């Protein structure tokens, strides 16, 4: 349709006035609600008529939002295995479980679109997701207002469960627990002066801050923090500076690909001290891409195939897929099982009943540990697992 902008009408003036007024109001809102500490600036969630009821009486639908195309792991395998096991034994409440999978691209914008689509779909009774803390934080209030339980398998930012939301649950440890384990490990090995490499995002900054706090409390001094490397030659000057600081360990708070670059460049620049990292590097992509630079890196994570209590899950997974499970596949498997158990206990497959049953979860054993949720939705009882990269594989090390 062609418009004549040279001769505005009275109606057009009124329309422009309304638009400018709307922009004036919206311009006062924070464009980064998750980063600024307030609730993300999103439209109020409108629920469809009959939300919470399943359309197909013979199935129970669980939404799954994850960066399937962005992160290389076995998340999908863990989901599929759990659903197959549950459905083979009669499903829940006599109904088959069906997963509705959506790729959120680890993007806040795409994550919001996916969240709204789940909310608008009355067949979805609960959601597993999102993989990224940044995305989960940005959409958590949307799920909460819709009365839809959100169980995240890997979003570790403490802020997610500090927002006063009653429908958000974390199926893993948070960054504070991981940072505390990292600091304790550093102290146990006699390291006293640490350098922190981190990404300038929710995961990196939160984990870096938590590590510095935990390390300080244990007498381990953080002598420098860096979130941008530059090239190898530029970074050599950083390494020289750290040597002057007498540093003896590096802590990496980053996922892929940034964490891989951090460690690769640091090693090429002459850094020879031990490296400890968070679970962001618990992916086969790390040792495969970083090669020799990854060797001997300590990676703290939520699951390893050799940890106590995991043997049955590991054997079944390897038999089905021909590969060993990773932390994401184990967490995905547990997430489906947790929601299925909640639905069964609730005796009804509607949103309110599922959320209420999830809050009452206590002592439920999964592949990654024993699950209970506190009043904020944080899981309690899960342990951080210590692994080390040896010859391109993650090897379990003891906790002493």
Task: Explain what you see.
The protein has 400 residues and is α/β, with parallel strands linked by helices. It has two domains: 59-173 and 309-380, Rossmann fold (3-Layer(aba) Sandwich), CATH 3.40.50.2300; 176-301, Response regulator (Rossmann fold, 3-Layer(aba) Sandwich). Helices cover 40% and strands 18% of the residues. It has 13 helices and 15 strands. It has helices at 10-26, 33-36, 75-88, 108-120, 133-146, 175-188, 202-217, 232-244, 258-268, 285-290, 311-321, 327-346, 351-359, and strands at residues 59-66, 96-103, 124-128, 149-152, 168-170, 193-198, 221-226, 249-253, 275-277, 298-301, 364-365, 370-373, 379-380, 385-390, 393-396. The strands form three sheets. Strands 7-6-8-9-10-14-15 form a seven-stranded mixed beta sheet, sandwiched between helices. The protein has a five-stranded parallel beta sheet with strand order 2-1-3-4-5, sandwiched between helices. A hairpin with a 4-residue loop joins β11 and β12 (370-373). The N and C termini lie far apart (72 Å).
For the record, the CATH architecture of the largest domain stands as 3-Layer(aba) Sandwich
Structural class: alpha/beta
Order of helices and strands: HHEHEHEHEEHEHEHEHEHEHHHEEEEE
Gross morphology: elongated
Question: In this structure, how is the largest beta sheet organized?
Answer: 7 strands, mixed
The rounded Rg comes to 23 Å
Low-confidence stretches: 1-42, 46-54
Count every helix, treating DSSP H or I runs of 4 or more residues as helices: 13
Could you estimate the helical fraction of the residues in percent?
40-55%
As a percent range, the share of strand residues is 15-25%
Query: How confident overall, as mean pLDDT?
Result: 87
Give me the count of strands: 15
**How far apart are the termini?**
72 Å
What is the CATH T-level topology of the largest domain? Rossmann fold
How many domains, in number, for the residues?
A: 2
